[in-house]
Design goal:
By secondary structure, this protein is an all-alpha fold. It has 79 helices and 2 strands. α9 runs parallel beside α11 and α24 packs parallel to α26. The protein starts with a helix and ends with a helix.
């Protein structure tokens, strides 16, 4: 490779070294490093040269080049020639010191080179550096900095020079005037001291083992003098801090006498730095060094500083530690180290100071003291041994602190104490109690509290979790604590304040108990007489049983409570072991499979009570059982704040009393239970009653006697309250005590043995209850007086109007929700009407004008839930019709046959069965209908509409039955009222909740429609859009009658064909453009049709008219896509209607009605309905619809196709698009050939090829291509037409989105798979030439289709040289498009290359393409191209020139991914090519191209170009 090419590339990389993208910079550096590793001297020379020739290069650029030099030097130091090393040292030294000003990035980069070289050539470096570090002359800042860094990176090389350096440096210190120079000298002295200490600590590895500390003591002390006495007082805090740090390190090297002399000055000075600086870590570290040095040399004067040190260090350990900020953590740890040093030297003073500080209630101070205490217990255990009791006494104060943060620190201290034997000492039990107390904490935030923003906050949950873990650790890891914790932890199980700690307590006790039991330790057996503080065995068993009954409460305490009970068995009672070993594991496994939600509580309670009962039976010790009952009763108050648990304990007491044989104890405990019960709460009342009931199953006599006695006690007397300030004792209280007593009797009756209880129910139970409860009496005399009053009022004006004036006061009570009010109202009305009839005197021709209104009000009451109301309502109607007969002129003794049948209906009304009631109402209506004058009919109908929302559901239903019977008989004459009736029904529907009544209202609408169809449809069509749910219900009701539904469907289809689906309107005056707006009537009809089809009864007409209705709705859908709803200013929701959505929904319901379940399933899976509705996806939706029908409803297609065909010539473009899309997809399926539709469809597609609409033309081309999939055997039959259509499609001019071109290529790809060679042979190269321009098309789909088509052409060209040449012509394009931004193009490339592989002419490449280029497998592009270039070099060396020129052309591709791939291709070609083939490549062109790419706007391209350049070696 020509040196000039390498140099050109290196130069370009040097130019690009300051690229604005950091990743490109990194790659440039890597490539230069790659080149530098191959030819270090040459590349380093170019870097030097570049810097020398460009003295005005911006600093950032110089920095990158200097960094590159440092990298090359760092990894190739052994191979760089000595002269080059010298010149690099010289260059770096010059770059570092050229500017007198400090320019950190630049000078640091140069300094880093010197440090890198210094690791190998320390003498050369020191020669250069020391030439710029001359006595009497203040050196450059970075000269000192470099010496500092060298002392860190090459300790063994540098320390031998340090004595001389220190000698030269000392006089310079006095010359330093500027803070930055003082800082760099201080930093140097700090690092020099650290290096010397490291050297001295590892003398066995050092080159000069004779070096001693005192070699440096003099110079170090002299330097210390200047730093400490002059510079430490600087105002610049950064300098002060570094001086302080240096002083700490230097102390170790100072002579002991000098250090001793300075300690009283050093320590206060360093401590004072805390006030002036925020970086406390450095100060604490320095202080630690000073203390360490002082302690190591046995300082006596240090004691005088202890007080000040303790004060300062305590402030540091008390400071906030932010674990996300490492310096604060380090500072804390350094301060603790200082405390350790002081404690080991001054134990009494240090410990007393810390313990005194514990008394300070300040939170931070306490936390600091506790942190120190914990640290000292762990790190200085020997020193602390004698102070254990003192510490135990002192820890009590912070234990009482309310702060969770302090508590957390206390827990940490207790944990440390436990591991060092404190808890066994007197007072250790208080520490255990503290842990348990905090295991019992409740959650910090209840729902009404807001979390704080304190970042250090310790929530109750966090503290509790920590204590749980601590208790577990103490139990499992500190063996000697077993006898401290067992059995003392049992104490904490029973007091309620520790209930939330039950789970961790039980777990610890289980571990301890198991261990002691398995080791057969005597201490496992608990002597409850000796352990006076422990709860009794009975109380323990009670607590653990109640816990187990609520297994998911208190952090899931059920399973551990049961497990502990099992372990404690012989401690509770020796006889429990067998029964518990059998039963408890079964209960535990049931809990293991359950959750709080899935556990059947009632069943679980029963299992717990059964366990208790079996346990008491197995114990068989009446004295023990009686004590258990007494302790359980005493324990009730523990659960005053947990009523569910308390209620369960009452049950336990009941079960226990069943097993008690001592009747006196039973009575006493029942008395206790009834007295302590808090009757105000329903849960507690029920618990008491269940417990008493359970007791009664064994002690019926005693229980009844006790209840009777209690019923007579003071609890039931109203006592005067204190000072008579209140009324007599709250009546409610007494009522609740009564309530408990009643409940008790109820449960006694439930639980007592049936043979004993029967004869006691009447004599004891009911007698006792009746003393406390009276039933309300009815005031018959009052009611009679009311009737008399109403009659006397009517007598004053016995006319229809007079009657009405009285009835209006009664009327509202007829619909009351209270039975007695309705009964009184209807009885009063019945009496009034009877009185009216008896006293009727008809004068002239007066009509009974309120008959309709009265019948409307009273007839629905005939099905009232109350029998008395029903009977009275029939009486009312009988009387009313009698009155009407009189008004019509009939005599008083005239008997109308129909009216006289009414009294007999009363018998039928006695049956409360709904169907009988409504049949009776229907019969009643027929009678009313015969006698009702026409002018009264309207009033009756509208009054019945009101009855639809009666307070009694039965009456609502009756109103609907009466209404529908009436309309069937007489509705034909009400045509003029239909619009008004529908309007009232629409309003009523909004208030009806009863489903049966809603259905009946639908029936009303249907009855009206069967009589006045056109009127009903006109009213409904003109309802505002979108229809509200009530209008929708009315439409839906019309589907219930197949004959009516069929008429409506035909009417709608006829209208939809002839009416314009939309009109074009201007968008606005301001903007141009037209919007399609739906016409109102067709849209309303489509909405109505959709609702009608929702009725299951519409199936018959839907199926018989399916092809016509399917076609009609599909075409309607096509005409609705992209159409806006009409704007109705009076109806605010009109704009929310989705015009196409309505048609799609109607179509979906039609398919369901036609029972095309598989079609529906497929469309739902494919989300076809959403696609059908929207303009940009409509064609996809239609395609999915046609596909589903072709696959699952083939036999229906001929009729559908016949109905759709006429629309292909429709004036509406949108409808032509829909039908063409539908037919186009049908051609994808073989079923059309089987149904002999193929010719019809193909002819239609051929005609559409010349349609004025380009979308229709595109769909026609698609359809023609689809034949290759649906009916491949027909392809050759239509070969000529297909090829002509596809060829013209690829040349289509009026094709804005190139969609027709795309379909033509895709179609041709499919067709080629089935065409005979003879039909295509002559066209292969012609088609290939047509495709080639599309390979680089900006349109992703066209690129994809052209590549696929190329792949499919391969089988027609195999074996022909001309085709092979064509493949090699496009191979580079395909290879580079493997990284195309479009995933489909990538897949197409893989496919095309795989099928063309055999034509390429290289076995290795063919195998590689076929193994690696699978559409669904990922491809490691870099590796693939790397391997491919190797095979190209091997198999086609003569074509390398053609290939690399082709690749370079892609350096100007539109896609950055392709440009980057082209750079990679060239890079790998260069990396793999052998010397003998280099002549095929034009290196000048390559280097120019890569240099150009190095300035590409895309950083990835620049990066790949830089990477490729790394192969120029």
């Amino acid at each position: 490779m020509d040196n000039t090419d390498v140099e050109q590339v290196t130069l370009a990389l040097l130019d690009a070294a300051n690229d604005k993208d950091s990743e490109v910079q990194d790659q440039v550096r890597k490539s230069m490093l790659t080149l530098g590793k191959q030819q270090p001297d040459r590349v380093l020379a170019m870097c030097q040269d570049y810097l020398l020739k460009n003295p005005k290069l911006v600093v950032s650029h110089r920095v990158v080049i200097l960094q590159t030099i440092k990298l090359i030097v760092g990894c190739r130091i052994e191979e760089i020639s000595a002269p080059r090393i010298k010149s690099i040292i010289s260059l770096a030294s010059d770059e570092m010191t050229r500017s007198k000003e400090v320019i950190p990035d630049w000078q640091q980069a140069a300094s880093n080179i010197l440090v890198a070289v210094g690791n190998k050539h320390i003498n050369d470096i020191m020669e250069e550096i020391l030439s710029k570090f001359q006595p009497g002359v203040l050196p450059h800042f970075f000269v000192v900095q470099t010496l500092t860094n060298l002392s860190d990176s090459n300790v063994y090389g540098m320390v031998p020079f340090l004595n001389a350096i220190l000698g030269t440096m000392l006089p310079m210190l006095g010359m330093a005037r500027q803070d930055n120079m003082k800082w760099v000298f201080s930093s140097a002295l700090c690092h020099f001291s650290d290096s010397i200490l490291e050297y001295l600590a590892n003398l066995d590895k050092a080159p000069d083992p004779t070096v001693r500390k005192d070699t440096f003591s003099g110079e170090i002390y002299a330097a210390f003098d200047i730093l400490f006495n002059n510079w430490l007082q600087s105002r610049e805090h950064k300098l002060r801090l570094t001086v302080g740090e240096a002083v700490g390190s230097m102390c170790h090297l100072m002579a002991s006498d000098k250090l001793e002399e300075q300690i009283p000055r050093i320590i206060p000075a360093i401590v004072s730095l805390y006030k002036k600086n925020t970086e406390h870590y450095v100060i604490s570290k320095s202080l630690c060094h000073v203390l360490e040095a002082s302690v190591n040399m046995g300082s006596r004067v240090l004691e005088t500083q202890v007080d000040n040190l303790l004060l300062a260090l305590h402030q540091q350990v008390s400071a906030l530690v932010d674990y996300s900020d490492p310096p604060t953590v380090k500072n804390h740890n350094e301060a603790l180290r200082c405390f350790s040093l002081l404690a080991n030297s001054f134990p009494d003073r240090t410990v007393m100071y810390v313990l005194q500080k514990l008394e300070n209630s300040n939170e931070r101070s306490r936390m600091g003291s506790l942190a120190v205490l914990r640290h000292l217990i762990n790190s200085s255990s020997f020193t602390m041994e004698s102070k254990k009791l003192l510490i135990l006494a002192s820890i009590r104060q912070p234990m009482a602190d309310h702060s969770n943060k302090v508590k957390r620190c206390v827990v940490q201290v207790i944990s440390a104490m436990a591991h060092h034997g404190y808890l066994e000492l007197e007072g250790g039990e208080l520490l255990v109690r503290f842990i348990v107390q905090n295991c019992a904490l409740h959650d910090t935030y209840q729902s009404h509290h807001r979390p704080t923003t304190d970042p250090e906050e310790v929530t109750n949950e966090a503290l509790r979790t920590m204590c749980d873990s601590t208790l577990h650790l103490l139990t499992t890891t500190v063996g000697r604590l077993a006898d401290v914790l067992w059995p003392k932890l049992l104490y904490y199980l029973t007091p309620s304040q520790y209930s939330n700690a039950t789970t961790p307590l039980c777990k610890s006790l289980i571990v301890l108990g198991n261990k002691k039991k398995s080791n057969q330790e005597p201490s496992f057996k608990i002597d409850f007489t000796q352990e006076v503080n422990l709860p009794s065995p009975q109380t323990l068993m009670i607590r653990l049983l109640v816990n187990a009954a609520f297994p998911f409460n208190s952090r899931g305490h059920g399973p551990p409570s049961l497990s502990l009970l099992q372990i404690l068995s012989i401690n509770i009672h020796p006889n429990t072991e067998t029964v518990w070993e059998k039963e408890i594991p079964l209960l535990l496994s049931l809990l293991d499979e359950s959750t709080a939600e899935s556990l059947d509580k009632k069943q679980w309670y029963e299992k717990m009570l059964e366990l208790l009962s079996n346990t008491l039976v197995s114990i068989g010790d009446d004295k023990w059982v009686c004590q258990f009952a007494a302790e359980a009763t005493r324990y009730l108050s523990t659960y005053n704040n947990a009523l569910e648990e308390k209620s369960f304990l009452y049950r336990c007491i009941g079960v226990t009393l069943q097993q008690c044989f001592n009747k006196e104890v039973v009575k006493k405990q029942l008395q206790e239970v009834l007295l302590v019960a808090r009757h105000n709460d329903a849960i507690e009342r029920e618990g008491v009653a269940i417990g008493v009931g359970l007791c009664a199953s064994s002690h019926l006599e005693g229980t009844l006697a006790k209840l009777d006695e209690y019923g007579k006690s003071d609890a039931f007397k109203k006592s005067p309250s204190i000072f008579n300030l209140l009324k007599e004792r709250n009546e409610v209280e007494v009522e609740k005590v009564k309530s408990t007593l009643i409940l008790c009797y109820g449960h006694v009756a439930l639980n007592a043995p049936s043979e004993k209880i029967l004869n006691r129910i009447d004599q004891d139970i009911l007698r006792c209850i009746s003393k406390h409860f009276n039933t309300k009496a009815l005031y018959k005399d009052t009611l009679a007086a009311l009737q008399e009053l109403l009659r006397s009022m009517l007598a004053r004006d016995p006319s229809p109007d007079g009657f009405q004036s009285i009835f209006k006061h009664i009327e509202s009570w007829l619909g009351s929700v209270h039975d007695h009010e309705r009964e009184r109202a209807i009885t009063a009305t019945s009496n009034l009407l009877a009185y009216y009839l008896q006293n009727l005197n008809v004068k002239s021709m007066v009509s009974f004008h309120n008959l309709g209104a009265l019948l409307g009000r009273l007839s629905p009451r005939c099905s009232d839930p109350q029998l008395a109301v029903r009977a009275a309502a029939v009486n009312c109607i009988y009387t009313l019709l009698g009155i009407q007969l009189r008004y019509e002129g009939f005599s008083l003794d005239y008997k109308d046959e129909a009216v006289e049948s009414l009294p007999s209906l009363k018998e039928a009304l006695e049956n409360p069965d709904h169907s009988v009631l409504y049949k009776t109402c229907s019969d009643l209506t027929k009678v009313m209908s015969k006698r009702l004058p026409q002018q009264q009919l309207t009033t009756l109908v509208f009054m019945l509409f009101e009855g639809l929302v009666d307070s009694q559901t039965n009456c609502c239903r009756a109103s609907s039955v009466i209404l529908n019977t009436l309309l069937k008989n007489r509705g034909a004459g009400l045509q003029d009222l239909v619009p008004e009736m529908l309007e009232v029904l629409h309003v009523r529907l909004q208030s009806i909740t009863e489903e049966q009544v809603r259905v009946a209202v639908g029936q009303t609408v249907l009855i009206l429609a069967s009589q006045h169809l056109q009127t009903v449809i006109n009213v409904l069509v003109n309802q505002p859009l979108p229809y509200d749910s009530w209008t929708s219900e009315m439409w839906m009701a019309l589907g219930a009658d197949p004959f009516v539904a069929s008429q409506i469907i035909e009417m709608v289809m006829e209208k939809l064909v002839i009416m314009a689906p939309y009109v074009d309107k201007k968008e606005s005056m301001m903007r141009g453009g037209m919007t399609k707006v739906a016409t109102n009537q067709p849209l309303a009809m489509t909405c109505g049709l959709k609702e009608l089809l929702l009725n299951g009864q519409s199936q018959e007409p839907a199926v018989s008219l399916f092809p016509q209705l399917f076609s009609c709705l599909t075409i309607r859908l096509g005409a609705s896509v992209g159409v806006m709803p009409p704007k109705d200013k009076t109806h605010k929701h009109s704009g929310s209607l989705h015009v196409a959505g309505v048609a799609a929904e109607a179509l979906r319901i039609l398919l369901a009605r036609a029972q095309l379940d598989e079609v529906m399933k497929r469309l739902d899976e494919d989300n076809a309905w959403d696609a059908l509705k929207e303009q940009n996806t409509h064609i996809t939706g239609v395609t999915l619809l046609a596909r589903a029908l072709a696959k699952h409803a083939g036999p229906r297609l001929p009729a559908i196709a016949e109905c759709l065909c006429p629309s292909l010539n429709n004036i509406y473009e949108s409808q032509r698009i829909t039908v063409t899309a539908f037919f186009s997809e049908l051609l994808n399926h073989h079923v059309v050939t089987e149904l002999m539709l193929i010719d019809v469809l193909m002819n239609n597609m051929m005609e559409r090829i010349s349609d004025p609409c380009c979308t229709v033309r595109m769909l026609a081309v698609r359809g023609l291509g689809n034949i290759a999939v649906g009916s491949p055997e027909k392809v050759n039959k239509y070969a000529k037409e297909l090829l002509a259509a596809m060829s013209s499609g690829m040349e289509e001019k009026d094709d804005p989105g190139k969609l027709i071109t795309l379909e033509a290529m895709s179609g041709l790809s499919k067709v080629l798979l089935h065409l005979d060679k003879k039909n295509v042979h002559l066209l292969v190269v012609y088609i290939f030439m047509k495709i080639k321009p599309f390979l680089e098309s900006d349109n992703d789909d066209i690129r994809c289709a052209s590549i696929l088509l190329m792949g499919n052409l391969s089988k027609f060209g195999s074996g022909e040289q001309v085709f092979k040449d064509q493949i090699h012509n496009v191979l580079v394009s395909l290879l580079l498009h493997l990284v195309d931004p479009n995933a489909h193009v990538v897949k197409a490339c893989k496919y095309a290359m795989r099928v063309c592989a055999p034509v390429v002419g290289s076995e290795q490449i063919t195998t590689m393409f076929q193994n690696h280029l699978h559409e669904d497998k990922s491809l490691h592009y870099g590796e693939f191209i790397n391997d491919l270039t190797k095979y190209l070099i091997q198999d086609f060396p003569g074509m390398l020139n053609f290939y690399h020129i082709s690749v370079i052309q892609f350096f100007k591709s539109n896609w950055p991914e392709v440009r980057a791939a082209a750079a990679m291709f060239i890079g790998f070609l260069l990396g793999n090519i052998q010397q003998e083939h280099l002549s095929h490549l034009n290196m000048g062109t390559i280097s120019k191209g890569l240099v150009m790419l190095l300035q590409d706007p895309d950083p990835v391209v620049r990066m790949k170009a830089a990477e490729a350049m790394g192969h120029f070696h």
